[in-house]
Write a structure and sequence with these properties.
Amino acid/polyamine transporter I
Length: 451
Amino acid sequence: MREDQDRTTRYEEGSLSLPGTVMLGTGVMIGAGIFALTGQMAQMTGVLFPLAFLAAAVIVSFSAYSYIVISNAWPSAGGIGMYLHKAYGDRLPTAFNALLMYFSMVIAQSFLARTFGSYTMQLFGGDESGRMVPILGVSLILAAFVINLLGNRMIQGVASFIGILKIGGILIFGIVGVWIADSISVDFSRPGEAGTVGNFLGATALGILAFKGFTTITNSGSEVKDPRRNVGRAIVISIAVCVVIYTLVGFAVASNLSLAEIIKTQDYSLAAAARPALGEYGVWFTVAIAMMATAGGILASIFAVSRMLAMLTEMKLVPHRHFHMPGSIQKHTLVYTVVLGVVLTAFFDLSRIAALGIVFYLIMDVAIHWGVLRYLRDDVKAKAWVPATAIVLDLLALGGFVWVKLNTDPFVIGVAVVTMIAIAVAELMFLKKSRGARQSGHEDSHAHHHQ
C-alpha cells in the first residue's frame, strides 16, 4: 500500500511529556486571541476588559473538567468527535456538534489569517485600502497548506519552534509594557454604558476564544505519557500560564493606550500599545511576534482541523466527495478546510469571524457538558455540579454575547442561525440516507446468506 493511500492514522503512545503537552496547549491558546481580541473586548466592555479575561478563565476552568474526565476515562486522539460519540452515539447531536466544532476551528484559522494581515500592515503604515489584510491572510493560509502537504514532522517542528519564541516574546511585551507605563492603575469604577452586565458577559464570551485551545491537549490523549494523570494536569497548567500572560498584556495595553485608542486600533492593539511604550522598535518587535504566532497557529490548526473532519468521515457521520482528487481522505479534508478558510478570510472582517466562532464553540461546549451530565456521568465518575455549573456559565456568556451582537451587528447572528439550521437539516438527511443504506445492505447480505 502506498503511503499516500494509507487511510490509517498513526499515533505514538507516550511520545509527549507533561512539559511538552503544556507547550502544545499554550502554543495553541496564545494565538490570535490575545493579539486581536483585546481591542474587541475593550470595545464591548470598556476598561473592564482585563477583568473579562479573568471571567473567561473562570468559565474555561469549569469547562475543562468535562474534557478532563472523559479523556481520563478514554485517552484518545479522537478528541471532540469521540467525546460526542461516547455521549450521543451515531445520532444527529454527535454529527451536528462535531461540525460546529469543525467550523469554529476553521473560523479560528481565518481569524489567525486576518490578524496576521492586520499586524503585518503596521510595518507599512496600515491598510488604508482595506485590500491588503485579506490578501496577506489568504496567502498565509495557502503557504500553510503547502507546508501541511510536506508532512507531519515538519509541521510539528516548525510549530514547536514558533511556540517557544511566541510565548517568550509576549511575556517580554507584557512585562516591559507594564514596567515602562506611567501607571498600571486602570480605573474600573467608571466603565460607563459599556460596563453593563450584558456587555461584560459578551466580552467574556470573546475572551473564551483566547482559552479554547486547551481542547488540543485532550486531542493528544493517546500520545501523552501517563495520560490519566497528565492530560488534566497539562490543561490546568496551560490555563494558569495563559491567565498570567493575558492579565499582563491586558494591563500593558490599558496602561499605554486610552480606551478610545484601544478601540480605534482594535485589530492590532498590541502593536499600537508598543509604540508609546517602546517606540518603532517596539512596534516591529510586536509585529514580528504576532506574525510568528499567527503563522504557527495556522500551521497547527489546519493539520488538526483536517484530521478531525477525516475522523468524522471515517465514522460515517459526514458525507464525503473525492472530486477526483488523489490521495487519502485527510488530504481531501485538508483541501476543503483550506478553501473554507480562504473564503472566510477574504469576505469577513475580524469581529464577524470571532462572533461566528464563539457562537458555534459555546453551543458545542454545552453539548459536551450535557453529554457528561446526562449520559456519561457514571462511566467517567464525574461530579454532577461541575458540568451543570459550566452549562449555566456558558449560556450566560452566550446570552450576553448574542444580546450585544443583536444590538450592534444582527447580520452575523443571522448568518450563525442560518448556518446551524443548514448543518442540522443536511446532517439529518445524510444520517437518514446512510442508515437506510446500511439497513438495506444488511438485509441483502442476510438474504444472500440464506440462499
